[in-house]
Specification:
Layout (H helix, E strand, L loop, with lengths): L17 H10 L11 H14 L4 E5 L2 H11 L5 E6 L3 H4 L4 H6 L2 E5 L8 H4 L13 E8 L10 H13 L3 E6 L2 H8 L14 E5 L9 E5 L8 H7 L7 H12 L3 H20 L6 E2 L7 E5 L2 H8 L5 E4 L4 E5 L6 H16 L1
Parallel strand pairs: 2-3, 2-4, 4-5, 5-6
Antiparallel strand pairs: 1-7, 6-7, 8-9, 9-11, 10-11
Helix pairs in contact: 1-10, 2-10, 8-11, 11-13, 12-13
């Protein structure tokens, strides 16, 4: 069997951090009550409250799409709408699941940098109260965005204040929240509870876990009935201790920050290498663990013979290069050299 090539396609492609595996092995002793009534889940929830605030209500789920679907379903009714960026994961990469399971319409807005602004949302509220139109209820943002940019705490606070004044809520798809926090030098609490976020989908899979995300409510009233929503969305893990143990490893001793900061550093190193290649253009700010660049199509094909990565925009030949907690400096140098060789042909 051929050894799979290391690549830059997705931080989902990386393995599991050894400390996370160790935590799962530790949890793999004897029996524990299923569905979250165990000491491992209790310990993980306690850590979440230390990081996000004592009032946080925390629920573990299997994956990112499940977290977003369940979170949005819990705080909306089918006549509501969710406002998001056109590039948002909920709009582009979840196969219509948010709309199917929440019953809500997604209102996707164009954004040059992946980030929503309050002034874009305002025009959508002109039909508030009109029974012939969906009613915007939630602003959903990705942190970091799908193009690698990061919302500052101030930007999030402005969106949260705008939403609150209009009877709306702010949801954060935080699949890469750790990378955003590492870039900003901010705490998880500063980017969520203290910024006015109402509900969060917090990612672990892209940051060294085997699987698992968490839905976090910062207003306990919004969490009422969520355990039933989670079950109906098929997101209730029976052997919850193995998911909880992973989060305990991630949040203990700030492993989440260590892994995210490393992935970010590798992205910066890769961008620095690629900026030395005249025929290549870095197209977006490098603020997390993603590098976007344009390459001639023929060069893309040559580099892909050695490294797995995706073409983000076929029309412009823009590629996305994702770094992970286990990306090495050697990986970065080898990819940069592969790019140079492909452009010399």
């Amino acid at each position: 069997m051929n050894r799979p090539k290391r690549g830059f396609a997705s931080d989902n492609n990386a393995g599991v951090h050894p400390r996370v595996l160790d935590a799962m092995r530790t949890a793999n002793h004897g029996h524990a009550v299923a569905y979250g009534d165990d000491v491992y889940t209790e310990a993980a929830v306690r850590l979440f409250r230390e990081r996000f605030g004592e009032g946080a209500e925390v629920f573990f789920v299997f994956g990112g799409t499940g977290a977003n679907v369940a979170a949005l379903s819990a705080v909306t009714r089918p006549f509501h709408a969710v406002v998001c960026a056109e590039t948002a994961h909920v709009n582009v990469d979840e196969c219509g699941a948010p709309e199917r399971f929440s019953g809500c319409k997604l209102l996707a807005l164009p954004t040059p940098d992946g980030k929503l602004r309050a002034e874009q949302v305002e025009p959508l509220l002109k039909r508030a109260g009109d029974q012939h139109h969906v009613q915007p209820r939630v602003i959903s943002v990705s942190q970091a965005t799908e193009v690698g940019t990061v919302y500052t705490p101030e930007e999030l606070a402005r969106l949260a204040s705008f939403a609150r004044e209009r009877g709306m809520l702010l949801h954060v798809d935080g699949a890469r929240l750790a990378n955003a926090a590492a870039h900003l030098g901010a705490s998880l609490r500063e980017l969520t509870a203290e910024a006015g976020v109402d509900v969060l989908s917090f990612g672990g899979t892209k940051n060294g876990m085997m699987y698992g995300e968490a839905v976090v409510f910062f207003d306990p009233a919004l969490a009422e009935g969520f355990r039933f929503v989670r079950k109906q969305c098929a997101q209730l893990p029976s052997k919850m201790r193995f998911l909880a143990a992973q989060f305990t490893a991630l949040l203990s001793e700030d492993l989440w920050l260590e892994t995210a900061a490393h992935a970010n550093r590798m992205a910066q190193a890769l961008a620095d290498e690629l900026r030395q290649v005249p025929q290549l253009h870095i197209t977006r700010p490098v603020e997390s663990n993603a590098v976007f660049a344009t390459l001639p199509p023929e060069a893309v094909a040559r580099v892909q013979e050695r490294f797995f990565f995706y073409v983000w925009n076929e029309q412009t030949s823009e590629v996305r290069l994702m770094c992970s907690f286990d990306t090495t400096e050697e990986d970065v140098r080898e990819l940069a050299e592969a790019v140079r060789e492909a452009l010399r042909v």
